[in-house]
Hints:
It comes from Pandoraea faecigallinarum. By secondary structure, this protein is of the alpha+beta class.
Amino acid sequence: MATIVAGRFDTFDQAGEVARRLYARRFRTDDVSIFFLNPAGQHARFPIGGDMHADPGARPGGLGAVLGLVSGLIAGAAIGATIYRFGVPWWPIPIIAALVGGYGGALAGALSRMRSRRARAQSYDARDAGVIVATHVTAQTADSAMTVLRNAGADDIQRTEGVWEDGEWRDFSPLSPAQPPTTKESDL
């Protein structure tokens, strides 16, 4: 495993300037990698796209749909029976009203359960989009790389262990949160 120091920038121009500063401190071109991190949900981890098999915010919608279906069927049937008894005496009216009520109830129930958990579900992608500058470092060069990133205004600076091959961070995961540097390093 290699030690990697990385930070996020808004533009490729900023990242390129940081790379030049690292080269000026005698980092080799194989020790610096610049790549773009897509926004949440756009990492194409699955063949049909997306980052996860199912949206975590949609999971509670199933229970809401069932509860809404039952209450909608009951309410629709009651309204349909009332219309049949006091209005139009046509036998399909209670059935049609129950089905419409069930559909409306299922939709409303699912949406209401999903809305309440939307903020918590959005936290699955812990990294913000941007240009990542990753640097392969040694114990002697780690502090220097962190100083360059910090002075350049990098966001989400981290020091981690990973696989570094052919000048690239091979096991980078866009879904894992950035690990902040340890206390000692952040005091620099």
